[in-house]
Amino acid sequence: EVQVVESGGGLVQPGGSLRLSCAASGFSFNSYSMNWVRQAPGKGLEWISYMTSNSGRIWYADSVKDRFTISRDNAKSSLYLQMSSLRAEDTAMYYCARDKDYAFDVWGQGTMVTVSS
Amino acid sequence: QSALTQPASVSGSPGQSITISCTGTSSDVGNYNFVSWYQQHPGKAPKLMIYEVNKRPSGISNRFSGSKSGDTASLTISGLQAEDDTDYYCCSYAGGRWVFGGGTKLTVL
């Protein structure tokens, strides 16, 4: 079964850091670009970061640029998101999503990040 | 980085057809044929319904179709069913980023 499973979310204080992980299975992870997409409680979807299969191309949304870092380990079929200088507005469900022809075809169940003191 | 514009809500009766619009700009929808649509039930992950404007992933019903004209994309759902009652989001590639619409709540009356 093709799937991705996110982990690493939790409660963190403003200004703090957190590292999210996404474990992929059922497909050749090293052949696909991957993304992180988030959704604040009761709000819409927001794309935040993209990385090509060989890590050669990385893009960020302006809202997270210089604070978040995307990375991957193809040997472990895993995608990561290192988040720092977290703000209340970063509170959201964070989804890992596989790229297919500039769309997101495989999504995980998400991991919740809450930024609060 | 403005979101794409979708109507907040649409409704239709079972068996009818509805269309959800998604208006962007010449920097996103109007410039790329990389518009996708997602269905999201409460508490669940989004599900890809349409990609590249009008292509359906394997397993998606042909009741779902997509189109685009200029800066506006559309999702049409024909033969409305009770299980279609949920949220829908459009998305467009915009050159080094993606932008989503604000979402549309579809109510099947």
Please explain how this structure is put together.
The complex is a heterodimer of chains A (117) and B (109). Chain A has 117 residues and is mostly beta strands. Chain A is built from no helices and eleven strands. Chain A has strands spanning 3-7, 10-12, 18-25, 34-39, 45-51, 58-60, 68-73, 78-83, 92-100, 103-107, 111-115. In chain A, a hairpin with a 5-residue loop joins strand 4 (34-39) and strand 5 (45-51). Chain A starts with a strand and ends with a strand. The model of chain A has no long low-confidence stretch (mean pLDDT 97). Chain B is mostly beta strands and 109 residues long. Chain B is 0% helix and 43% strand. Chain B has strands spanning 9-12, 18-23, 35-40, 47-50, 64-69, 72-77, 87-93, 98-100, 104-108. In chain B, the strands form two sheets. In chain B, strands 1, 3, 4, 7, 8 and 9 form a six-stranded mixed sheet that branches. In chain B, strands 2-6-5 form a three-stranded antiparallel sheet, with no helix packed on it. Chain B is globular. The chains are: A mainly beta (117), B mainly beta (109). Chain A binds chain B through residues 35, 37, 44-47, 50, 59, 61-63, 95, 100-105, 107-110, and chain B through 1, 3, 32, 34, 36, 38, 40, 45-48, 51-52, 55, 57, 89, 91, 93, 96-103.
